[in-house]
Amino acid sequence: MQLAIDLPDELGRQVLQHPNVQEFVKTAIERLLLEEKALQQRTIPPKTHSLIGLISGSDIEEADYKRHLESKYL
After folding, report:
1. Angle between helices 21-41 and 9-16 in degrees, nearest 10
2. Whole-prediction pTM value?
3. pLDDT at 26 over 90
4. Does pLDDT of 40 surpass 80?
5. To bridge 7 with a disulfide, which of 12, 31, 45, 50 should be the other Cys (CB 3.0-4.6 Å)?
6. How many domains does the chain have?
7. Looking at the domain assignment, is residue 52 inside a domain?
8. Considering the domain boundaries, does residue 66 fall inside one?
9. Domain that holds residue 14
10. Looking at the domain assignment, is residue 62 inside a domain?
11. Which DSSP string do the residues of the chain spell out, in sequence order?
């Protein structure tokens, strides 16, 4: 299969410096697809996902959190 893509000039020049452009692009795309698949498989459970950013923008500092944990568990 042939595929045509537009690249920014500098990126295109860098790709064309490789001795086997076709193999280089094929390998790069395969790696990207494998990384994407691995990321999709590492999905965060819904309950954990709901906690992301929960306290952003608050006045809570890491030291406050550590004090809380110490008082709760020690």
Report:
1. 110
2. 0.52
3. yes
4. no
5. 12
6. 1
7. no
8. no
9. 9-41
10. no
11. --------HHHHHHHHTSS-HHHHHHHHHHHHHHHHHHHHHSPPPHHHHTTTTTTTTSS--HHHHHHHHHHHH-
Residue 64 identity: D
**C-alpha torsion sign, points 33, 35, 52, 58:** negative
The answer for residues whose C-beta is within 8 angstroms of residue 66's C-beta and 6 or more apart is none
Cα 72 to Cα 4, 48, 66, 69: the distances in Å are 60, 21, 10, 5
Please check the confidence at residue 31 and state whether its pLDDT lies above 90: yes
CB 18 within 8 A of CB 8: no
Please list, in sequence order, all residues whose beta carbon lies within 8 angstroms of the beta carbon of residue 9, skipping any fewer than 6 positions away.
none
Residue 17 resides in a domain: yes
CB-CB contact of 19 with 10 (8 Å):
no
Measured between alpha carbons, how far is 71 from 74 in angstroms, rounded to an integer?
Answer: 6
